[in-house]
Specification:
It is a single chain. The chain has two helices and two strands. It is of the alpha+beta class and 79 residues long. It has one domain. A hairpin with an 8-residue loop joins strand 1 and strand 2.
Length: 79
């Protein structure tokens, strides 16, 4: 039972982190007119916090005016 509760909590934390990343992307584009090349820009300039000891951040850009593909994976899961 405890294992199931932990996996539910991990998934909720993953979804919250992904939502925060998406919101930071939108805010950055609205304020600065571009999407950053790396997600760490959002961490450094917009206060985005993602626990990188628990999650892997997939962040792929195509250009500064095209929204990046983003997804957050629980470490140990296959990206």
């Amino acid at each position: 039972m405890a294992s199931k509760l932990k996996s539910i909590q991990d998934e909720q934390n993953r979804l919250l982190s992904e939502t925060a990343l998406e919101r930071s992307l939108s805010l950055c584009y609205a304020q600065e007119g571009f999407y950053p090349a790396q997600w760490t820009y959002l961490r450094d300039h917009y206060g985005l916090t993602i626990d990188t000891t628990q999650f892997y951040v997939y962040y792929k850009t195509i250009g500064s005016n095209i929204r990046p593909d983003v997804e957050i994976y629980l470490l140990g899961d296959s990206p």
